[in-house]
Amino acid sequence: MNIVTPEFGLIFWQVVIFGIVLLLLRSFAWKPILSSLKERESSIEGALRMADQAKLEMQELKAGNEKLLAEARLERDRIMKEATAMSNQLLEQAKDKANEEGTRLIAQAREAIQNEKNAALAEVKNTAAQLSIDIAERILRRELTDQPAQQQLVDSYLKEVKLN
């Protein structure tokens, strides 16, 4: 038997054995292998479809989140504008109220000062009148204690008074 040039019988039996092994493998090994490959292929395709579907859902969710975020930003801006406007309005009202209160207090203070001034002037007048009366009383007592002085005072008053 020569290995380099095989004989016809050797080739025949090798083909027959190869055919038998091929039939045995086809019936017992290839069907389970092919069915497991088909199952794996279908599970991979299913996983890819689910991944694509999940990707689409994620894109939809992302778009929805971006829309909600944009709406939230708009709402925040609107609320901030309203709060700013309201705080400005409250500040203006507080300033106006403070100005009115200040004006009212100034007017009350001026009125109180004027009343105190009038009261002080009245008191000064009363004190001056009392002092004048006291001085006149002392002068008259001194003048009236002396008889010749009394006569002279009456005469001077009579001269001052002119009768028509």
Automatic annotation (TrEMBL):
Main location (coarse class): membrane
Domain of life per record: Bacteria
Subcellular location, record wording: Cell membrane; Endomembrane system
Keyword Ribosomal protein part of the UniProt annotation: no
Bilayer topology annotation: Single-pass membrane protein
Keywords from the named record: ATP synthesis, Cell membrane, CF(0), Coiled coil, Hydrogen ion transport, Ion transport, Membrane, Transmembrane, Transmembrane helix, Transport
One Gene Ontology term, aspect cellular component: proton-transporting ATP synthase complex
Keyword check for Ligase: no
SUPFAM superfamilies with a match to the protein in the record: F1F0 ATP synthase subunit B, membrane domain
Protein function: F(1)F(0) ATP synthase produces ATP from ADP in the presence of a proton or sodium gradient. F-type ATPases consist of two structural domains, F(1) containing the extramembraneous catalytic core and F(0) containing the membrane proton channel, linked together by a central stalk and a peripheral stalk. During catalysis, ATP synthesis in the catalytic domain of F(1) is coupled via a rotary mechanism of the central stalk subunits to proton translocation. Component of the F(0) channel, it forms part of the peripheral stalk, linking F(1) to F(0). The b'-subunit is a diverged and duplicated form of b found in plants and photosynthetic bacteria.
Subunit annotation: F-type ATPases have 2 components, F(1) - the catalytic core - and F(0) - the membrane proton channel. F(1) has five subunits: alpha(3), beta(3), gamma(1), delta(1), epsilon(1). F(0) has four main subunits: a(1), b(2) and c(10-14). The alpha and beta chains form an alternating ring which encloses part of the gamma chain. F(1) is attached to F(0) by a central stalk formed by the gamma and epsilon chains, while a peripheral stalk is formed by the delta and b chains. F-type ATPases have 2 components, F(1) - the catalytic core - and F(0) - the membrane proton channel. F(1) has five subunits: alpha(3), beta(3), gamma(1), delta(1), epsilon(1). F(0) has three main subunits: a(1), b(2) and c(10-14). The alpha and beta chains form an alternating ring which encloses part of the gamma chain. F(1) is attached to F(0) by a central stalk formed by the gamma and epsilon chains, while a peripheral stalk is formed by the delta and b chains.
PANTHER family reported for this sequence: ATP SYNTHASE SUBUNIT B, ATP SYNTHASE SUBUNIT B', CHLOROPLASTIC
Family stated for the protein in its record: Belongs to the ATPase B chain family.
Record-given protein name: ATP synthase subunit b
Lineage, opening ranks: Bacteria, Pseudomonadati, Bacteroidota, Cytophagia, Cytophagales
